[in-house]
Each structure stands twice: as C-alpha cells, then as structure tokens.
Specification:
The protein is an alpha/beta fold and about 230 residues long. About 50% of the residues lie in helices and about 15% in strands. It contains twelve helices and eight strands. Strands 4-3-8-7-5-6 form a six-stranded parallel sheet, with helices on both faces. The longest helix has 15 residues. The chain is globular, with a radius of gyration of 17 Å.
Length: about 230
C-alpha cells in the first residue's frame, strides 16, 4: 500500500479499520492519527515523524481530502482503534500503557483486565514523566519487550516521545490523546448524532470554547481542499 501526500504529510488510504488492523500485524512503527490540524501543522519534526511512520485518517477532513483524490476510505477514530487492536491481538501480542493521570492509567489497566482476561499487560505508568524517568521508562521497555505500546499524552508531545522510544525499543506504537480518560468515563465522547454527522469537532468546540483557534484551522483546510491545494 502506497502513502498519499496531503500537503507535505503522507497518509495511508485505508479502506476501513479492518484493512488497517491487518496491515499493522508485523509492523514496528508508530501509528499517527491524521486530521486537518496535523496536515496544516508546519512543525518539521512532526512532519518527519508522520512521513516515516503510518499516518491514518482519524479526522473527517483527511477522509474528504483522500476521497477527493479518488480513494475509498473511512474515518478511523483513534479513540476506538486502540480497543480494536486489543480485541484483535490480545491473545498473540502483549501491551504497555503510558499516559494520563495515575488514577486514570490504573483504572484503564484494571478495566482492561476485567473486560479482556486474556490480555497481557506488561506494565503501565502515568504520562507525567519527570526528569530522569524517561531513561527508566526506556530501560523498562527494553527489559519487558512489549509488542504494542499505547501513549496517551496529546499531540505533539506523544509523537515526540514515541519517536524516541521507538528508536530504543522497536514495537508498534499508537498515540491516543485523551482516550484513556474517555475509556474510564472521565471524559465524555460526543453523542452518537454528532458522530453520525461527522460533527465530533463541533461538539468538542461547544464543550471547550477555548478550542476555537484550533478549529479555525478546519476552515483554512476546507478552503485549500476546495481549491485542490492539498
């Protein structure tokens, strides 16, 4: 499968979640959720990370851009993808979790063990990594050798960290933002009607009006899309 370039970001045009899940079976790379905001992000380090790994269409803007280029794709929300990865690979892969608060990461591990008794969780820790702790984290990853590592810290912090960890311990990495908090019920995802209409971004804006500057990027993205400049 070849990558498709949107501006200077490369994205894999997965037809659906099942195709992505099969594709990643033996990969030792990072899965990066691609949305309009990331496509427009001018950060060179983030761009390099995306292009060297597996960008997938997490946002509706990315889906529209790929469809305009003639590809049949569907939105693959990262907040659902990590749980689908666990369901598919829980009996043949092992896992490591990094991110959120101590309370949330503990509850995440507990809930996963309850819902998926077969899962092998090698370790977990919160996302507040203090001076000197990153080196200990790397040593633990090398020692425990997980197949899949989930990191929930928000963009681009999680991508920077995963890129460093990947260079020390090859595995499949996936950045998850606030997904652990959603899973544990600390954060609410958009109601089904918003999801069905691809308006999850609007719901998040209504809940967090301070996101307005970030959401204005979507208008710029749509403008470039209409002019075929993506």
């Amino acid at each position: 499968m070849r990558q498709i370039q949107l501006l200077n970001k490369k994205v894999y045009p997965f037809r659906d979640k099942l195709e992505l899940l099969d594709f990643i079976f033996d990969k030792k790379k990072m899965l990066v959720a691609i949305n309009a905001e990331k496509i427009l992000n001018a950060d060179e380090q983030l761009t390099k990370i995306i292009n060297n790994n597996i960008g997938y269409p997490d946002g509706i803007g990315t889906v529209w851009a790929l469809k305009k280029k003639g590809f049949i794709v569907e939105k693959i929300p990262g907040v659902e993808l990590w749980l689908d990865i666990i369901k598919k690979y829980k009996e043949c892969k092992n896992f490591y979790f990094i991110g959120s608060s101590e309370e949330v990461i503990y509850e995440t591990a507990r809930k996963l063990k309850t819902e998926h008794p077969e899962i092998t969780i090698l370790n977990y820790r919160n996302g507040y990594i203090k001076d000197g702790e990153k080196e200990l984290l790397i040593l633990d990853l090398i020692d425990k050798h997980p197949d899949i590592v989930f990191v929930a810290m928000g963009t681009p912090k999680q991508e920077y960290l995963m890129n460093e960890l990947l260079s020390k311990h090859p595995a499949l990495y996936l950045g998850l933002g606030g997904s652990f908090d959603v899973y544990c019920g600390k954060l609410k995802r958009a109601p089904k009607i918003f999801l069905k209409l691809n308006l999850e971004w609007l719901y998040r804006l209504l809940k967090e009006p301070t996101r307005i500057k970030r959401q204005l990027q979507l208008l710029r993205f749509l403008y470039l899309l209409k002019l075929n400049k993506l």
